[in-house]
Amino acid sequence: MNYERKVDSMDSLAGATHDFYEEADNRRKRRRLIVGAVLAALVLAAAWFAFSMSKGDGAAGADGAAGTGAANVPTITVMVPGLQSVQTAIAANGSIAARREMPVGVVGEGGQVVSVLVEPGQWVRAGQALAVIDRTVQTQQAASLAASIRVAQADADLAQSELERAEALVSRGFISKADMDRKRATRDAAQARVRVAQAQYKEAVARNGRLNIVAPAAGLVLTRQVEPGQVVGAGSGVLFRMAKGGEMEMLAQLGEADLQHVSVGTRATVTPVGTSLQIAGQVWQKSPVINPETRQGTVRIALPYSETLRPGGFADARLVAGTGQAPLLPESAVQSGPEGNFVLVVNKSDQIERRPVKVGTVTDDGVSIASGLTGNERVVVLAGAFLNPGDKVKPVLQKSSQ
Domain named YbhG-like alpha-helical hairpin: which ranges (predicted)? Predict the structure, then answer.
């Protein structure tokens, strides 16, 4: 009996415990549902707020852009360049060389060099010795020939004396006419031998005079390729190089089209590379042929002597080929792109147009336009980089510089 009550009590307790846990689980589920509902409501509220704000901002931005676009048109400074007198200049480059280069070598028999008297960069006069060749043997040969002249002259004097004595005896009949002829022949042969000896001596003296290496004309020594002790001869080649009178020239390379605008006498300004010196020159020869590979011709520009001009160096040249009429623009008006140079012009509808041009001479006054403009267009002077073809602008005219 007591056992049954105990069992019933335990069953009752277990049921109460089961109900407690079930009720707690239900409460947890309800809390999760409430939290989820609150989060969903917050998400919906945030989305609605964001959508409302973006819609309002978009409408305001569209209204603002429309108002700004319709409010102001950019004001652009333009100019009508017209036609001005400009120099037609051609740019070229090339190398410096001696206008008349003189290679100097061994003229005589040659021999051992005793001394070299000049250095590259020195000025020499015509006939001045550049190098001295040993002439010990040649001097003795000349002395021997000089002695042979005296021997021949003594024989000639003796023959002349015998002839004169024989002529005195002819009238007395002591000398035959045949003997007289022989004595005259002897006298003439002796005199001939004198002349031969004199010629041989003069030849030796001339040969000795050609032993030294001398300057063929006055000028500037450019190179030296001989040293004391060196044995030189006819096959030694060039020992010195000189620039006759120190005159230089520039061998400018010009394109086939530019060559047509250059003639003998065209003025030029030459600037050696690495310097700011401008040397005035003049075209003295134009190449009659065109290089088929480079399609260029050579123009030779005569230049006076200058220490900055060194044969073999490089230089730039500007040739003034004449004057002509062309539009003149400031450098800020000319732009460049992958397709070449261009300018921006304002058409009759006050819209921007892009006009390709060919640039001519660039001077301190501006850039001349060789082709692409007539001079009557309204050209944008500034702010061209911020404009595009088709843009509407308000042009303000500026007078062209004179």
Answer: 136-213
pTM exceeding the 0.85 threshold for the entire prediction: no
The CATH class that applies to domain 93-97+244-323 reads: mainly beta
User: 75-87+326-398 maps to which CATH number?
Assistant: 2.40.420.20
Kindly report the CATH number that applies to the domain delimited by 106-132+213-243.
2.40.50.100
User: Residue 380 half-sphere exposure, CB side, CA atoms within 13 Å?
Assistant: 29
Angstrom distance (rounded) from CA 298 to CA 95: 11
What is d(CA 315, CA 91) in angstroms, rounded to the nearest whole number?
A: 11
**Tokens standing for 203?**
């030849």
- Phi/psi of residue 366, each to 5°? 145, -165
**pLDDT score at 222:** 93
Query: Between 3.30.160, 3.40.50, 1.10.287, 1.10.10, what CATH number should domain 136-210 receive?
Result: 1.10.287
Give the bridge partners for 79, in sequence order: 379, 398
pLDDT tens per residue across span 219-261: 999 999 999 999 998 888 899 999 999 999 999 999 888 888 8
